[in-house]
Amino acid sequence: MIDVIKRTMLAGVGAAVITKEKAEAAFGEWVKKGKISADEAKAMASKLADDGKAEYERSSAEVKQTVRELLDKAGVGQKDRIDALEKRLLALEIEVANLATHKDAPPPQD
Questions:
Q1: Alpha carbon 24 to chain centroid, angstroms
Q2: Residue 64 is inside which H or E element, if any?
Q3: How confident is the model at residue 18 (pLDDT cuts 50, 70, 90)?
Q4: How many CB atoms lie within 10 A of CB 77?
């Protein structure tokens, strides 16, 4: 789980830092040196930014799923179930009180 959180954090930082424009600027040095063309630099920068965004989204989904699983194991998602049980308990308490009241009452006379 720690690895998933770490990857998400790094992907988030990477997505924030590596924008298409920043990547193009970084690849600009290669363009100046003639190692790649300007079009190749733009394509590489776009792919890098897209890959960073995809990794961030994938990692975020993993973290959300892991957190949900941990909360379920901890019983956090049981509020509805507890509320239903409390209502049933209250209904039973009222029924017991009514039975006790009727037990103490004199029998009906014909």
A1: 32
A2: helix 38-74
A3: low
A4: 11
